[in-house]
Automatic annotation (TrEMBL), chain A:
Protein name: Gustatory receptor
Subcellular location, principal: membrane
Family stated for the protein in its record: Belongs to the insect chemoreceptor superfamily. Gustatory receptor (GR) family. Gr5a subfamily.
Pfam families noted in UniProt: Trehalose_recp
Keyword terms of this UniProt record: Cell membrane, Membrane, Receptor, Transducer, Transmembrane, Transmembrane helix
UniProt-listed InterPro entries: Gustatory_rcpt
GO molecular function, one term: sweet taste receptor activity
Record has Membrane as a keyword: yes
Transmembrane residue ranges: 88-109, 121-138, 174-199, 241-261, 301-323, 335-356, 407-425
PANTHER family: GUSTATORY RECEPTOR, GUSTATORY RECEPTOR 5A FOR TREHALOSE-RELATED
From TrEMBL, chain B:
GO cellular component: plasma membrane
Function: Plays a role in the sugar gustatory response.
Protein's GO biological process: signal transduction
Key word Membrane present: yes
Protein name in the entry: Gustatory receptor
Organism: Drosophila navojoa (Fruit fly)
Family stated for the protein in its record: Belongs to the insect chemoreceptor superfamily. Gustatory receptor (GR) family. Gr5a subfamily.
Membrane topology reported for the UniProt record: Multi-pass membrane protein
Record-linked PANTHER family: GUSTATORY RECEPTOR, GUSTATORY RECEPTOR 5A FOR TREHALOSE-RELATED
Keyword Oxidoreductase: no
Keyword terms, alphabetized: Cell membrane, Membrane, Receptor, Transducer, Transmembrane, Transmembrane helix
Pfam families xrefs: Trehalose_recp
MF-aspect GO terms: sweet taste receptor activity
Bilayer-crossing regions: 53-72, 93-114, 246-265, 305-326, 338-362
Length: 431, 443
């Protein structure tokens, strides 16, 4: 739809020309300049760089991934420098995060340490680590995108706009749904905190009650003041975004890799069971190898974020399930609690399934290779098949575990086991 | 003037063409209707054992359709060409009505469970209703794909080595019928026992009349909301029967499909067994490899279609075994109750085990040819044999539960181990539910 609208616009301009400008054709180039959005700007070339542009731009608003030129047409215009404003913002945020983290550590160490009470500590330290990793990822990002672009250029291209647009649409959909849900969750958390603050009011000022509740680690050490409260709230919003964004980043990279494999698979499916020349197979094998190399490069780049995201999700699901045994003080709490629990479980499931789809798609060419007729079975096809069977192509968590569909069940089993043990030590806390 | 004439001519020409087209369409439709009728009539003439999976499974599908599952037309047709799925047929509407009724029942069950405390035992009706609801939705979806799948299946069957005798031809149908009748009659027996145990040995009569009291207990989720009425009680009982059938049918269907798939592999292996020790030409090996590949492709297609049902079947079986084992600690109020309880527990475990064994047989049968390939004499070990051996050793051919787990024999021990683990933990939280102590139950 969007692709056609500007095209129509320029057509109309041209149609009006004979009436408006008469035979004087000198105005034609000027009018072309006036319609400043041309069709080419709306055409997709199906590259990953183009698809993640808006996602990275959103992340930059929240002090992550400070790279310049993310919305540019070509990845060669990506730049990273320590002197850019966005990099400085990112460093500033990290410094404030560090202060907040040390305050949290102080508060946690002063109280008793239990499975439940170290929750803010784990939350904040994870976010600090992810921020640091994202900064180093941003340094590699221009190189990574160039590599990605070169490999994409070499792949068999899709013919229609619909097919080219599919990956970008999926990525945007994931980003939008994830952000909307996390926004809703944050709003609900504010509502329930306000409700709770009104319930047990320490002071007369309701706003002060709210901030003392949400940023208890700051006001445990320092006295209450409005700018400090604002700083704490801002920190809180940013942390929540980054907490969701690390899962979304893993999902987006895996969607990108899986769709590159799918692009190759669609081409192989087109020629399934037909007599193809040996050159065709050797070309496809090299393309497959390129994507595998890309996959391992991306895995090296993001595997730290992956492992943090997975362990974080595992810990939080355990904690939330354990807390579900508590009696809820109000309806607002109940709604917030179950919404956040289901959001957490759904997000974890989505990350695991999207990440596993890379492995699934990478195994698919084997099925097409099995159907190669006898006459076109050549050393290249044999090599291709052997490579697929012997390789393990998947994203991983620092190579400790590979992200496949089997992992989902083992993680679920682990959660149930831990939960059953934790329940035995659980005592109901009155909030 | 002339262009008016031309446009008139063109219009007339168009009308003629349209008429021709309509006549052609009508003739085609008539032919198709006739062909379907022939396919239908042929059923009554031929015997059912033509060795195809479609013919073998048709009686089971007919029974399932009586209970509102698998609304696909032409299951009793002589060939798979008679199968079709349409949205506006009474079967589909019946199936949709069934799904609607179950979802209402599920809502009432959730309402009922939320009023008590939520724990392992009280969510039982929710899990029961929910799994059947999801499965019947999956069956509706499967019915949509069923004609295509059966056509593909028949194409694979047609190219396999022919049957040697009528006994072999009958084998598949006989196995399917015997497994289906054993499982269905056992489930009927279980259901009757449950009725007998609760009607004749009423422990806490909720109403004066034992039948009314039974109906009240069966559809307690309705009478939690509405006052007691007889017709609602009977409606609840009808739903209960439909649900119980659906619950058993999930497992039965999975078993039957895997019997069919492993039968295809057995046919290929049987031929290979006779010829493997002789040096065969390359052409033979190409034939074997392509046939094996077509069967494996069919297995993958079937797996995509039924893996959702498989997942539900395994998940609900594990849950119910855990639950029943937990309940076995309770004291039984009467002998009849004890008989019913242990029968149903044994039936449940036996059914789950047979699902596991039958489904994992597909994996076993798919590995069989590899053993035979090792017997090929050196003179006959051609490149095609090598390719087939490579494929067999590296591929993992099995049915799966949404691809989260592959069903092989190894799964059996893993599932048993996790059941024991959960059971040991659950026992610690268990309090004896004195089901004969009516006052305790009411409090």
């Amino acid at each position: 739809m969007i692709g056609h609208a500007p095209n129509k616009l320029t057509c109309q301009c041209r149609a009006h020309l004979p009436f408006g400008c008469g035979p004087n054709m000198r105005f034609l180039p000027k009018l072309e300049q006036l319609s400043y959005k041309t069709r080419e700007q709306f055409m997709y070339n199906g590259s990953f760089h183009e698809a993640v542009g808006s996602v990275l731009l959103t992340a930059q608003c929240f002090a992550l991934m400070p790279v310049r030129g993310v919305t540019a047409k070509h990845p060669s215009s990506l730049r990273f420098s320590w002197r850019y404003v966005r990099t400085c913002c990112c460093l500033l945020f990290m410094a404030s995060m560090l202060i907040n983290l040390s305050l949290t550590i102080y508060k946690v160490l002063n109280g008793s340490i239990t499975f439940n009470s170290i929750r803010p500590l784990i939350f904040k330290s994870c976010i600090f680590l992810v921020c640091g990793k994202a900064l180093s990822l941003a340094r590699q990002w221009p190189d990574l995108m160039m590599k990605w672009y070169q490999i994409e250029q070499d792949l068999p291209q899709y013919q229609t706009q619909l097919e080219k647009r599919r990956m970008a649409q999926t990525i945007r959909m994931v980003m939008l749904v994830g952000m909307m849900l996390s926004f809703a969750e944050h709003l609900l958390s504010i509502v329930s905190a306000i409700n709770y603050a009104a319930f047990c009011n320490r002071t007369d000022d309701p706003i002060r009650n709210f901030f003392e509740l949400t940023n208890d680690e700051i006001f445990y050490v320092l006295n209450y003041s409005a700018p400090l409260a604002l700083w704490g709230k801002l920190q809180n919003v940013y942390s929540t975004f980054i907490w969701n964004y690390m899962d979304i980043l893993v999902m987006i990279v895996s969607i990108g890799l899986a769709s590159k494999f799918r692009q190759l698979n669609d081409n192989l499916l087109k020629f399934k069971g037909l007599h193809m020349a040996a050159a065709y197979w050797s070309e496809r094998r090299i393309q497959y190898r390129n994507i595998c190399t890309l996959c391992s490069t991306m895995d090296d780049a993001i595997s730290f974020i992956t492992i943090i995201s997975f362990s974080n999700n595992l810990y939080f699901i355990c904690v939330q399930l354990l807390r579900s045994l508590n009696t809820m003080p109000s309806v607002a709490h109940t709604v917030y609690f179950y919404f956040s629990l289901f959001f957490l479980i759904g997000r974890t499931l989505a990350v695991s399934l999207y990440a596993a789809s890379v492995h699934d798609e990478s195994r698919r060419p084997l099925r097409y290779l099995r159907c190669v007729p006898k006459e076109s079975w050549c050393p290249d096809t044999m090599r291709f098949a052997e490579e697929i069977t012997s390789d393990m192509v998947a994203l991983s968590g620092m190579k400790f575990f590979n992200l496949t569909r089997k992992l989902v069940l083992s993680v679920a089993g682990t959660i149930v086991t831990y939960e059953l043990v934790l329940i035995q030590f659980h005592e109901d806390q009155d909030l | 003037m002339w262009h008016v004439q031309i446009s008139k001519q063109r219009r007339r020409r168009q009308q003629q063409l349209q008429q021709h087209g309509r006549a052609l369409l009508k003739r085609l439709e008539r032919h198709q209707r006739q062909r379907r009728r022939w396919a239908w009539q042929a059923t009554n003439m031929n015997d059912l054992h033509d060795g195809s999976f479609h013919a073998a499974i048709s009686p089971v599908l007919v029974i399932a359709q009586c209970f509102g599952l698998m609304p696909v037309r032409g299951v009793r047709a002589a060939t798979e060409r008679g199968l079709c799925f349409t949205r506006c047929s009474w079967r589909t509407w019946y199936s949709l009505l069934y799904i609607g009724a179950i979802s209402f029942d599920a809502l009432f069950a959730i309402n009922f469970a939320l009023h008590g405390g939520l724990d392992m035992r009280s969510v039982e009706p929710i899990v029961f209703n929910g799994s059947i609801l999801w499965a019947s939705y999956q069956f509706l979806h499967l019915a949509h794909q069923w004609p295509q799948l059966m056509w593909r299946w028949a194409r694979v069957e047609k190219h396999l080595p022919p049957y040697a005798s009528w006994k072999e031809r009958e084998q598949l149908a006989r196995r399917i019928h015997s497994v289906a009748s054993i499982l269905l009659s056992l489930s009927l027996m279980e259901h009757l026992l449950s009725i007998i145990s609760s009607v004749y040995h009423e422990v806490c009569p909720l109403r004066q009349d034992p039948v009314e009291s039974y109906l009240y207990a069966v559809s307690a989720q309705f009478f939690h909301v509405f006052p007691y009425s007889n017709w609602l009680g009977w409606l609840g009982k009808l739903l209960n029967v439909l649900l119980t059938f659906g619950w058993n049918y999930i497992d039965l269907f999975v078993i039957l499909v895997s019997i069919g798939l492993s039968h295809l592999l057995t046919r290929l292996t049987r031929q290979l067994q006779q010829l493997v020790e002789r040096p065969m030409p390359e052409k033979f090996w190409t034939y074997v490899r392509t046939r094996y590949r077509s069967i494996v492709e069919l297995i993958y297609d079937m797996d995509d279609a039924i893996s959702g049902i498989m997942f539900i079947s395994f998940g609900s079986n594990v849950y119910f075994i855990c639950l029943q084992l937990l309940k076995s600690i309770n004291e039984m109020p009467s002998t009849m109750h004890a008989v019913y309880f242990y029968f149903s527990l044994a039936f449940l475990i036996g059914r789950s085990l047979s699902v596991l064994l039958f489904v994992s047989a597909v994996h076993e049968r798919a590995r069989d040819p590899l053993r035979l390939l090792h017997l090929v004499p050196p003179s006959g070990y051609l490149s095609e044999v090598q390719r087939l051996a490579n494929e067999l050793s590296s591929d993992n051919v099995s049915l799966s539960g949404l691809r989260f787990f592959n069903v092989t024999r190894k799964l059996c021990l893993a599932v048993a181990g996790s059941i024991v683990t959960y059971e040991l933990v659950l026992i610690q939280f268990h309090e004896d539910e004195k089901s004969w102590d009516c006052q305790a139950g009411k409090q």
